[in-house]
Design a protein that fits this description.
DEAD/DEAH_box_helicase_dom, 2 domains, Rossmann fold, seven-stranded parallel β-sheet, eight-stranded mixed β-sheet, RNA helicase activity
Length: 530
Amino acid sequence: MGMFCFWKSPSVGSTICSVLTYTVTLHFNFLLSDFPNCSSSKFSSSGLNSFSKMSQKVDWAKYVAETEQNITNKLNTVEISSSEEEKKEKVKENDENAPEQFSPAEASLLAKIIRKGLVENKNSIEVQRKDPKSPLYSIKSFEALNLAPNLLKGVLWNGVQCTLKIQETALPTLLADPPQNLIAQSQSGTGKTAAFVLAMLSRVDVTQNYPQVLCLSPTYELAVQTGEVAAHMAKFCPEIEMKFAVRGEEVPRGTKLTEHIIIGTPGKVLDWSKFRVFDLKKIKVFVLDEADVMIAQEGHQDQCIKILKNLSTSCQMMFFSATYGQEVMEFVEHIVKNPIIVRLKREEASLDNIKQYCVRCSNHQEKYSAVTNIYGTVGVGQAIIFCHTRRTAAWLAERMTKDGHAVAVISGDLTVEQLISVLDRFREGREKVLITTNVLARGIDVDQVTIVVNFDLPVDTSGKADCETYLHSACSRIGRTGRFGKVGIAINVVDSEEAMNVCKTIEKHFNKKIHYLDAEDSDEIEKIGN
């Protein structure tokens, strides 16, 4: 029996970690993926026929003459201020100096990559039922679900011994007979993926060789990640076959898919359905992962609606997401019939177990000296340093490396493969210091981190203190060093009056004292580590 069930996707394995770069792409009717190196769907013959008809009506000689004159007029008003190379360099420089930003789909992917472990969430589950007559159960173990023996064996083999809160409530609903629709909201790392994957596998009838379960993700990488979870859970169920519907996967015309589960992106799935390689009417379970991202983005929303319209009215709907805006929730409730809505509130960060300090400096060089003095004096396991821009992160990493520190650096310009590699090395302790930009702070999960340095304090686009980022990134930076009763150290480095005002605003907002620390006083520094 193999490591996982059969995946008929040879090209996916070799390209699992694609490059997260920004390139210009052409968006045709069926966009295969959000990421730049995907291929477009083929042009339809109707499009070519339309062009042919248009050419018969147009006076092309007159059209060309008018167009040429228009171009000449425009060129006469154009001012050439710099060469193309200079412009490119300027754009690159601006990108490095600007705070990093990601699309919702990219942010979702990064959150899942960065968060290695599960989140301990003690908050209560909120359940809302449109149909008060529908039963509602809760379970405390996977054995209570009456799973197929080999499926239960796969769950336990993966080291999952007990259910998490979102699973306790969601799984009985997902596995109920008759099937019930579910809308679930829970932060990353709380077990959502395992819940819907288990439901997907449980609904498969292996005697029927056609797609019965369809799972959509906003990106190639997230689809592959879901597929990996499914493959591991189905380790002892080799009869369950799955297929990736992502870029690079092509199905010859006239082919009919025989795999039971399709996991992919909306564009590719819609493309395949148009070529009738599988029948959407036969899908009995539909899963929308990262539903808020899928519905909020116009292109994905249109594709998802087209897919939903072709599903059977008896198809079970499962919508999962970390967040739902009001408009998105209203839209989801409109298209999902009589859903049970399950919400697990986000675990709140706390600064109670954090010793916070402020170090005053005059410039970048003094900030650097302060950071290295503190790190070299305090007996710490590992440290994370947060910067505002890629340029600062790269500069700091280069300086610390030259001075003999084992440093890792991550920012948004890394490929997925590089990002995973850097984080894994840091978790293994190969590097003692991780330098990153603020945007990648949420969810970094490393138990050995005991000190966090804000080389640049978090601010919003107007330069004011971003207290929400300071607190919520605390789950992975300041707050994470103080979880489970451990005492952590947070160092805030300031080099201007503006930065000092940000620090004071944060202190006042949380009503938590941020103590002054002299980075030149080794005795004082030693005390903070005790």
